TrEMBL record:
This is Putative DCC family thiol-disulfide oxidoreductase YuxK. GO terms for molecular function: protein-disulfide reductase activity. It comes from Micromonospora taraxaci. Pfam families: DCC1-like.
Amino acid sequence: METSTFVYDGDCAFCTQCADFIARRIPTGARVVPWQFADLDALGLTVAECEEAVQWVGSDGVRAAGPDAIAKLLAGSGPVWRVAGAGLRFPLVRVAAWPVYRWVARNRHRLPGGTAACSLPQEARERLYGPAGRPTTEA
């Protein structure tokens, strides 16, 4: 792998808005990709891992999840963002970051840009909306 990869849930509108923010505002050499379009096998990731949290797979093979993945993404970005990434790695902040991340993940359907589909597990989303995110005709 030559480029680091940040993987997010492309079926979640809130997550997609966050990824769009990264693309617009955070200068990073990492590839930012929804897990639904990523080669998870090549990245060494599972669907379960990607449903649980954002994932980072560094070009050096180092992996991280959740706020640790966000810290890795920010560490390879512009100067201001590197400071934010370093802050996320500070031990006391890191201890608090996981509970905050889990709360956001559980409530992402209630956050700006979130939709009801954001709160469903992948299996339920596919059953309701199909693999391409469009509603199915089955009830």
